[in-house]
Amino acid sequence: MIVDKRDFEFLFQWLDMDGLLSRQRFASHDREVVNAVIELATRLGENDLAPHLRAWDSSEPQLDLDGNVTVLPSVAGGVRKIAEAGIFAMVFDETHGGLQLPHLVYVSALGILMAGNLGTASFTLLTVGNARLLANYASPAQIATFAEPQIAGVAMGTMRLSEPHAGSSLGDILARAVLEGEDRYGARYRLTGSKMWISAGDHDVTDNIVHLVLAKVPAPDGHVAQGTRGISLFIVPKILPDGTINDVAVAGLNHKMGYRALPNCALNFGEGKSMPGGEAGAIGWRVGEVGQGLPQMFQMMNEARISVGLAGAMLANRGYQMSRDYALERTQGRRIGAAVGAQVPIIEHADVRRMLLAQKAIGQGALALVLFSARLLDDEKTATTAEDRAAAASLLALLTPATKTWPSEWAQHSLHLALQVYGGAGYSQDFEIEQLYRDNRLNPIHEGTTGIQGLDLISRKLRRDGGIAFAALAERIRATIAKVGVGSSLSAVALAVGDALSEFEQAVAILLAEAEDAVALAHGSPVLAAFGHLVVGWLWLDQAILAEALLAIQDRRFDTAFLNGRIRACRYFAEAELPQMKTWLVPVLARSDLIFAAPIDEF
């Protein structure tokens, strides 16, 4: 079993799946359809993906002498099975061949696939993000030719931002796009330059790969602007609509410590090796207007960040399941006070229980955060009033740095605890837990490192609007706290969440009052850690309130142990995790300049 389907049933209840399905966009679907999707994803994950998890860890993608990348046949077959099941098409309009299911359902299905096999499942998130961007910004001809094949799963997609010298500093990219003319797909350009760290940049899963590429467009006088001005977005397919191979070459593969099913490529445009007559420059078509590349690409990046958080959450949950099962089976030692007798399962030992409870609180809390964000994606587009749609968009933007970072960072801690439960056996290759630990290590890095997400939270999400979005979130948190009745077993949790909110509000007031951005930004990562803990603590409290209510009415869908388990995990998070916020916020509350004032020569 790769997931506990009761977790999704409970979270769907908490997130009001029935209310979501009542909206016009989703009118052709009901809970039976949703349940069927979850069952389908579970079968795919268990039967078609999980069996080759270990195989791709030891058999990386290969680059042949002709510049072609091949992946393990079972990986390619698994991706094709996902396509045949319609997973790629879930969130798209029916007019584009989609199923018009909620993001909440798609993200849940993708998460189940990730629990079975992260590397194979991740081809999906890149392709769906690529096609979603095109569906929102491209012309009808571009959508029909380049997005709809991805929706059908017969072409894959990538996003190409980073360059070897620039990394996340996108204003420093050197890729160039020179206007060549117009055709039925729009303004056609010739692109030259290099891109680095491109996931699924080349492979043999599908014949065609649709690349979305950021490049700078020179001014009419040939001048290329500094910074982000002129950065535009281009569709650069591996195979052009007329069947010609485009001028895109794989310069090499990056060999990773984990996450190896998904090839990571260095790519060059403009070598001229494959174009008729040897003419250099990859052919690409501009999406939208010149200079709009970054705003367009940020839609794909933000949705990818939710998917990265999902990957962390599912690896944490999978690791918890593995270590729990191991703890139930592995016998070692005896109960306290018993010098003789049969050895007991290690779950009988208090410290093992502590580690399991911590994993449960982290993994299930992370999944709640990601699915809550997926629900906000749906609300942003389909809520019944403009005010509700705007509120959802604002809250989603505020939460996105935490949705990406908190699950990925804390999954690593959770997997550390899972390894510890296994003991020396976990450090060996006899068990998959060591692979999950390595696979997750990428999640805090890609789609914006933890430090970049901390900068985003402070500069864009808190300081830019003067804390308005956070103030709205604080009101929601207080409303949840107010739902806890007198005598509830959750009274202490409500008090802990309230204290955490007050502490964070003090920190926000100081960050907003700081005159210099640089001084405020020195606290980015610890403030983001504290924010993530606050949000997860709030969501745990809200879930536990539901669990108490379901216990009171003896809801037959969930047994007593399941509901009590969620309440206990909530209480653990409030008791053991929330107090850590104080440590992270101490420098902010003290208005410390220790970090920013440190001379470089002291390092």
UniProtKB/TrEMBL annotation:
Residues 474-597 form the Acetyl-CoA dehydrogenase-like C-terminal domain. Keywords: FAD, Flavoprotein, Oxidoreductase. Gene3D superfamilies: Acyl-CoA dehydrogenase/oxidase, N-terminal domain (1.10.540.10), Butyryl-CoA Dehydrogenase, subunit A, domain 2 (2.40.110.10), Butyryl-CoA Dehydrogenase, subunit A, domain 3 (1.20.140.10). Residues 159-269 form the Acyl-CoA oxidase/dehydrogenase middle domain. Its cofactor is FAD. Residues 291-457 form the Acyl-CoA dehydrogenase/oxidase C-terminal domain. The keyword Flavoprotein applies. The keyword Transcription does not apply. InterPro entries: Acyl-CoA_dh-like_C_dom (IPR025878), Acyl-CoA_Oxase/DH_mid-dom (IPR006091), Acyl-CoA_Oxase/DH_mid-dom_sf (IPR046373), AcylCo_DH-like_C (IPR036250), AcylCo_DH/oxidase_C (IPR009075), AcylCoA_DH/ox_N (IPR013786), AcylCoA_DH/ox_N_sf (IPR037069), AcylCoA_DH/oxidase_NM_dom_sf (IPR009100). Belongs to the acyl-CoA dehydrogenase family. This is Alkylation response protein AidB-like acyl-CoA dehydrogenase. It comes from Sphingobium xenophagum.
